[in-house]
Amino acid sequence: QVQLVESGGGTIQPGESLTLSCAATGTLFAVNSMGWFRQGPGTPRELVATITSGGDADYGDSVKGRVTISRDNAGRTVDLEMNNLKPEDTAVYYCHANVLHRGGRMYQADYWGQGTQVTVSS
């Protein structure tokens, strides 16, 4: 089983920066991709950023140019650096991982963190 441990949420003022971190713990064969999604009040969950094991990153349209996702060499920890935050970035941010397990055969599985609140308010 895999657990995603999130950290870094909080309340900040507009224009400030914040970094979220997520670490994948537990038994797995390899991480295919990790990333962050968010869900604001009354809105569907949307992509913030993801990064593959090869280092390819993808960003949501609403945050392009303001966020950077990076991962450690082992590929089990990702950091999301967010700059120039706006009130509309207020949401619960969820870490996601797609991993490979090796049992009798190889198979993929998706995991989600519990979510961390980010509030941007003056």
What would you say this structure looks like, in words?
- The chain is mostly beta strands and 122 residues long.
- Helix content is 0%, strand content 60%.
- The chain contains no helices and eleven strands.
- The protein has strands at 2-7, 10-12, 18-26, 30-39, 46-52, 57-59, 67-71, 77-82, 91-102, 106-112, 116-120.
- The strands form two sheets. Strands 2, 4, 5, 6, 9, 10 and 11 form a seven-stranded mixed sheet that branches. It has a four-stranded antiparallel sheet with strand order 1-3-8-7, with no helix packed on it.
- The protein is elongated, with a radius of gyration of 14 Å.
- It starts with a strand and ends with a strand.
- 30% of the residues are buried.
Could you write a compact summary of the structure shown?
By secondary structure, the protein is mainly β.
Q: Given the helix and strand composition, which structural class is it?
A: mainly beta
Given the structure, what is the number of helices? Answer: 0
Helix content: under 10%
Task: Tell me, briefly, the overall form.
Answer: elongated
Strand tally is 11
Order of helices and strands: EEEEEEEEEEE
Mean of residue pLDDT? Answer: 95
Q: Regions with pLDDT < 50 over 5+ consecutive residues? A: none
The biggest sheet, with number of strands, parallel, antiparallel or mixed sense and barrel status, is: 7 strands, mixed
The Rg value, from CA coordinates, equals 14 Å
Instruction: Classify the beta-strand content into a percent band.
Output: over 45%
Distance between the first and last residues' Cα: 40 Å
